[in-house]
Amino acid sequence: MDKIIIPTKPKMPLNNYLLDLLSKSDGKERSVYLNNVKEQIQEIWAELIKSNPRSLGVRKIIPERLGIHSGTIYGYKNGRKSISIQMLYQLLVIWKEKCNKTEAELKKKWDKIYNSKFYLSTHSRHQQICLPKFLNPKLSYLVGWICGDGHLSDYGNHFIIKISEKSTNQLKYVLRPLFKQVFNIDVPIFKIYKGGYAIQVGCKPVFRFLNQVLKIRVGEIPELINKLDKVNKRYFLAGIFDSEGYVCKDRYRATISQADLEFMQKLKELFNDLGVKFNGPTTHRTKLGTWYTIRLEKKSEIVKFVNLIGSYHIDKSKKLKEMILKMNL
Fold it and tell me: Helices 230-244 and 137-149: crossing angle, nearest 10°?
């Protein structure tokens, strides 16, 4: 089996999204927490004390304003306690007020925290998640796969990210390692209905990153795709093809199917922008419902697809290579 390699470059930086990980309904047990930020908290605290040297009030005001026990701040300072994103930001607001800082200085300090080597968790600290600060081919491919045939759901305080796939090798050797490389989380593989398999994980920080930062919706082309460079756009489209594409065995044809016509029309335009012309969309109606397909039928377009976009699916990439070999006989 050939090893599937998806590169880490080119990288497109993401703006500070920490506050975008929050929700109005967040409480103590529902927050997203930052870990490994004790040095930044110590720095903020030291500046607060230095700017108010003769006042013991600041030591009292901070816990009151944050709604925490006076001893909790020391847990934040020594790193024994995780601090929620909103709590750390509120601490910075107090710092701005008490140290006579500007809004620009607050933003600079907040960005310094964002650019540090923190990790995220929930209140339990069970998982140590590292969210990406760049869009790169690995993330672009995952985004494409999830947009094509993923599952994102929020049931109260339960956050589900799920990818179903017939090929256990694809789950085991491509998608599961990608989740580890991109988010630092281990995703288990489950056997599901009709002999299929899926990877599924309940992870609030990753869910909110996908849903609230990247604004991913299954069955939709996200707006961020318009900002991608051509390389990342190719990996995004490869992710969609690998999740929803099909390579015919008995004829020169590759198709992509989806139940949403607008999705298919936009997808066709994206491929066309990169120089690959799909035919369609074609409407299919059965008792089970209506769906649409776009397809490659010309040998020249199939070759262009393989060369310009390609597949990182263990089975589909092999079938495409075999198809190209037959064309050259």
Answer: 40
Q: How many folded domains does the chain comprise?
A: 2
Report how far apart, in Å, the C-alpha atoms of 10 and of each of 13, 175, 213, 251, 258 are: 10, 20, 20, 35, 29
pLDDT confidence bin for 62, thresholds 50/70/90: confident
What are the CA-CA distances from residue 126 to residues 25, 85, 129, 177 (Å)?
21, 17, 10, 20
Does one domain contain both 56 and 183? no
- pLDDT category at 284 given cuts 50, 70, 90 is very high
Looking at residue 28, the DSSP 8-state letter turns out to be T
Are 179 and 234 part of one and the same domain?
A: yes
Among 265, 258, 268, 254, which residue's Cα sits nearest to residue 296? 254
Q: Is 145 left (phi over 0), alpha (psi -120 to 50) or beta?
A: alpha
Q: What percent of the chain has pLDDT over 90?
A: 79
Q: Domain with 52 in it: what CATH number? A: 1.10.260
3-state secondary structure of 66: helix
Q: What is the pLDDT of residue 63?
A: 87
Residues 103 and 249 placed together within one structural domain of the fold: no
Residue 290 sits at φ, ψ, to 5 deg, of: -115, 135
What would the pLDDT profile of 245-269 be if each residue is shown by its tens digit? 999 988 999 999 999 999 999 999 9
Indicate the residue among 87, 116, 145 that finishes a domain.
116
| pTM passes above 0.85 | yes
